[in-house]
Amino acid sequence: MSSLAELLTEPTPARPVITAECPPVDGGGLNAISEHVRRLAPYVDALNATDNAAAHAHASNVAVAIALNRLGVEPIMQVACRDKNRLALEADIVGAALHGVTTLCCMTGDDVTAGDEPETGRVFDMDSPQLIRAANRLAQGRYLSGRPLDPAPPLLIGAVENPGAPPYAYRVRRGLKKAAAGARFLQLQICYHEDRLTEFTNLAESTGLNRKVALLPTICLVKGAKALRFMNERVPGIAVPQSVIDLVANASDEREAAYQLALEQAKHALSLPGVRGLHFADFRHDDTLGRIVADLGLPTVRGAPDSEAIAV
Amino acid sequence: MVQLLATIEHAVKKPVWGCTMCGQCVLHKTGLTCPMTCPKNLRNGPCGGVREDGNCEVEPDMPCVWVKAQDRSEKMPRTWREQFDDLRPPVDNRLQGTSSWKNLLTGRDKQVPAGWQSDEE
Ligand code: SF4
Predict the structure, then answer these.
(1) Interface of A with B in 61-90 (CB under 8 A)
(2) Cys-Cys with B49: which of A166, A237, A309, B36 at CB 3.0–4.6 Å?
(3) Are residues B51 and B82 in the same domain?
(4) Which residues form the Methylene-tetrahydrofolate reductase C-terminal-like domain (chain B) (predicted)?
């Protein structure tokens, strides 16, 4: 089983890289995580351990990433700038690396007003390009202070970018800034305007961004039009055109229409220049990921994790 | 004298740019738009939450500082325009409330943490 770092440096990739979000976990012990792993892991190269996704508190990114690692799946530990200052962020990265968690995804983070505790303070002591650089320096054996870190953790650093949010033309330049800071892959926010994703990848191609970072557009697996409306109205930076919502809402089988929409998006994304793979966010919590991967003609990445590993 | 400078600076920059006296001014590199008025304090470009109309994720009635900045930077002299894409280091919180004019003259605003500069640079 190749690591993400190995897959992303393959000179001639045999297949797209597939990552997915591990749904947030609250209680239920490691069993809660192993259920998600059992369902998602066969089809992915790595799973994201989110960091208080959508500004809601959950079991921490570090704890979930360590658990995923123990369960035999490579974790991509998301690190957001919203909740912690630079000391805490450095400590989390170094602490997780101590447990073998060395793949990161750095992001600004949704604002606290998007969450269920909007009265909380926002930190944003660093922004995401700064966080990428700070992580890259840790990988080179230095804390921000200059204090040595020996041995340096072998980090693979990724980030996010949103091709669907203004200023559109500038998004690729921001991607280049993140690449220069040390990012090696970009998980792109779900984009319901196909033309914007196309434009982003065209610019990525002409500026060479896709040769510096692996582009992984996100595909959301949702149950129906309600989720699309919710995303459009409530999730920062996501716009779903009315025509797309109507297409799903007016279908005789909404669930199936939502699936077909995701399948079309996935095919379109994979057809674009420089797209190295896909990142899935599964809000259906069923066997859809397996179905879409099969419909895309992609192989199952691994057998279901053995019960030994699960029974931690 | 130093305090006087800070007072004058604030008096000039507050009404025009909403200056919060971070003490490490980057206005010329950011299209003469102050990034510290971004509710997330971002100094390296817009977050992914910018709304369809170009307004801020956090303050729906305010144009995103970075959309404005990027737009304006296109109209700036070339060197400033190019500096828009520079990776700006984390804010030095000790400079809050001090005069960036003084910090510019003394070079204090250029100081970065010892570990910031990459080995390859
Ligand atoms: S939308 Fe613009 S101004 Fe608002 S938080 Fe994001 S970058 Fe800052």
Answers:
(1) 81-82, 86
(2) A237
(3) yes
(4) 6-92
